[in-house]
């Protein structure tokens, strides 16, 4: 993808993570869903988002005379970062649930 493709990748990655994280935190603070479910949803939707953006990356790479491999690798990296972001939400949700269960436990 070249130097301009690298900067495009990082810009899209930052925008996506900002949108995903801000929406997830907003939903959690409104008590509409818990972090484990939000993390699972993010992890499930990550490949779909990556494929849609990957179509653009590969087309841009081929349009500049490349073979599309750079766009495909950038897409794979983008998908993995978003999946790992969802997994982090799942782990934080589990920790908060355990903490809540411990603090609400009645003494013997």
Sketch the topology as an H/E string, one letter per element: HHH
Largest sheet: none
Shape, per Cα inertia axes: elongated
Unreliable stretches = none
Key terms for this structure?
single chain, 108 residues, mainly alpha, elongated
What does this structure look like?
- There is one protein chain.
- The protein has 108 residues and is an all-alpha fold.
- It has one domain.
- 85% of the residues lie in helices and 0% in strands.
- The chain contains three helices and no strands.
- Helix 1 (2-29) runs parallel beside helix 3 and helix 2 (35-63) packs antiparallel against helix 3.
- It is elongated, with a radius of gyration of 18 Å.
- It starts with a helix and ends in a 5-residue tail after the last helix.
In short:
This protein has 108 residues and is mainly alpha-helical.
List the helices and strands and how they pair.
Layout: H1 2-29, H2 35-63, H3 69-103
Helix pairs in contact: 1-2, 1-3, 2-3
